[in-house]
């Protein structure tokens, strides 16, 4: 190699600090802005929420920041809702394998969410309290949105272009036929409340206990076939962004998903949340705790803004403006639809723990070399761990002696949830 060629190569080298700075600038340009608003009206004091904007996948690394938004709608008291708000996030993060890159971390989230929900339920029930709660838990990591839910608090996505989709499934026995079949197959009874003369009133409930929901956290007095295993959906937005509306049933009993989305379009997140609550109260009144969180995922260049409502002072101009907006909105909707506004990455709603925890053997070992329970994360000797697939007709593994593993206590809970042993609940 000539000395001139060597000098040219050295001149083309870029200092490491400059490379890192360039990567950070590119990353910042690609990262959306997340803004939120919250509003609530209380009737029973059983709705609780969590908003945390500064979570980090890698402690101390600001580029690994993600956001959490959650609503917990308690019943039979607020103890379960408060406990879940304070502990669920830590249990989810505790179930995540260490040392993962961002893409691997995103892929591991669904299983960690299941483990975190089940651990939270198990721990709360050990306290001997009988209250319960719904849980709708949303993680926003750049353009990826992951939602886990039990109960009937809902999360919807209003994508740019006006397409409204649900990221949750309601676990109300009245509406969910599959859940009714699962509960009865596991040993519960489903029916309406009987009053004097044998007349049946109200929504379908599970007996014992009389709960209207088929999934929740807590509720130790209604049978373990009321499970804490969440429905999980994970989507990736396009760089057009979108709006999430997370709310308790005080909103959804009054408004459809489309009505809620439409009522606050064109408003910033903070005002949007207040408007959704105001619209629900106008429609139905304050019959239940009513809580709403609005989350806007905004492109970094703000190139696509929510449509602004037309001014009211000129009726003819407003009509023309509305027609023009409708036409351009339809074109934008078709264009975005064509390129795929929302990419679905994951969706699973099975209540069977073996199906939800998968077959990944490698993540069932702790850094100490011992096996760990995939739910409660305690260390197990190899002889103590029971495969989540052992003896399960639902197993997708051809090697049920492999992991993930459960401790004996978590295995007992799994069997009770699936109706394989009598529930420990005693009903007087």
Automatic annotation (TrEMBL):
Pfam family, one: PP2C
Gene3D superfamilies reported for this sequence: PPM-type phosphatase domain
Residue intervals of the PPM-type phosphatase domain: 28-297
Domain of life according to the entry: Eukaryota
Swiss-Prot/TrEMBL cofactor(s): Mg(2+); Mn(2+)
Any GO BP: regulation of intracellular signal transduction
PANTHER family xrefs: PROTEIN PHOSPHATASE
Keyword terms, alphabetized: Hydrolase, Magnesium, Manganese, Metal-binding, Protein phosphatase
Residues in the signal sequence: none
Protein name according to UniProt: protein-serine/threonine phosphatase
Catalysed conversion reaction: O-phospho-L-seryl-[protein] + H2O = L-seryl-[protein] + phosphate; O-phospho-L-threonyl-[protein] + H2O = L-threonyl-[protein] + phosphate
Keyword Membrane included in the entry's annotation: no
Similarity comment text for this entry: Belongs to the PP2C family.
First-level EC class: hydrolase
InterPro entries xref list: PP2C, PPM-type-like_dom_sf, PPM-type_phosphatase-like_dom
Molecular function GO labels: metal ion binding; protein serine/threonine phosphatase activity
Annotated SUPFAM superfamilies: PP2C-like
Annotated CDD domains: PP2Cc
């Amino acid at each position: 190699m000539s000395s001139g060629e060597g000098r040219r190569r050295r001149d083309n080298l870029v200092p490491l600090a400059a490379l890192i700075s360039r990567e950070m600038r590119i990353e910042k340009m690609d990262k959306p802005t997340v803004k939120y608003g919250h509003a609530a009206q209380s009737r029973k004091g059983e709705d609780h929420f969590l908003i945390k904007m500064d979570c980090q996948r890698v402690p101390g690394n600001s580029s690994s920041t993600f956001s959490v938004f959650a609503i917990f709608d308690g019943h039979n008291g607020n103890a379960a809702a408060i406990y879940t708000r304070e502990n669920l996030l830590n249990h989810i993060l505790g179930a995540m394998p260490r040392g993962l890159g961002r893409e691997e971390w995103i892929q591991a989230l669904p299983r960690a969410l299941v483990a975190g929900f089940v651990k939270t339920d198990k721990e709360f029930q050990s306290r001997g309290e009988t209250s319960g709660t719904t849980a709708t838990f949303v993680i926003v990591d750049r353009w990826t949105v992951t939602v886990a839910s039990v109960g009937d608090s809902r999360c919807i996505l209003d994508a740019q272009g006006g397409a409204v989709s649900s990221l949750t499934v309601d676990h109300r026995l009245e509406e969910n036929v599959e859940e009714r079949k699962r509960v009865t197959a596991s040993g519960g009874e489903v029916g309406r409340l009987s009053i004097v003369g044998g007349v049946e009133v109200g929504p379908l409930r599970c007996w014992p206990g009389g709960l209207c929901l088929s999934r929740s956290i807590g509720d130790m007095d209604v049978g373990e076939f009321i499970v804490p295993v969440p429905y999980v959906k994970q989507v990736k937005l396009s760089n057009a962004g979108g709006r999430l509306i997370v709310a308790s049933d005080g909103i959804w009993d009054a408004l459809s998903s489309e009505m809620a989305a439409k009522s606050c379009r064109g408003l910033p997140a903070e005002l949007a949340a207040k408007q959704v609550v105001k619209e629900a109260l106008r429609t139905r009144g304050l019959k239940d705790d009513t809580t709403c969180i609005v989350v806007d995922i905004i492109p970094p260049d703000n190139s696509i803004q929510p449509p602004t409502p037309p001014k009211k002072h000129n009726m003819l101009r407003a009509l023309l403006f509305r027609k023009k907006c409708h036409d351009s909105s339809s074109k934008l909707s078709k264009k975005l639809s064509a390129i795929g506004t929302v990419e679905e990455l994951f969706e699973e709603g099975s209540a069977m723990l073996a199906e939800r925890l998968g077959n990944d053997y490698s993540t069932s070992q702790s850094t100490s070399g011992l096996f760990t329970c995939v739910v409660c994360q305690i260390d197990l000797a190899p002889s103590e761990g029971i495969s989540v697939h052992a003896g399960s007709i639902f197993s997708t593994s051809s090697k049920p002696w492999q992991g993930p593993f459960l401790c004996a206590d978590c295995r007992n809970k799994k069997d009770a949830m699936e109706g394989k042993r009598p529930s420990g609940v005693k009903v007087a």
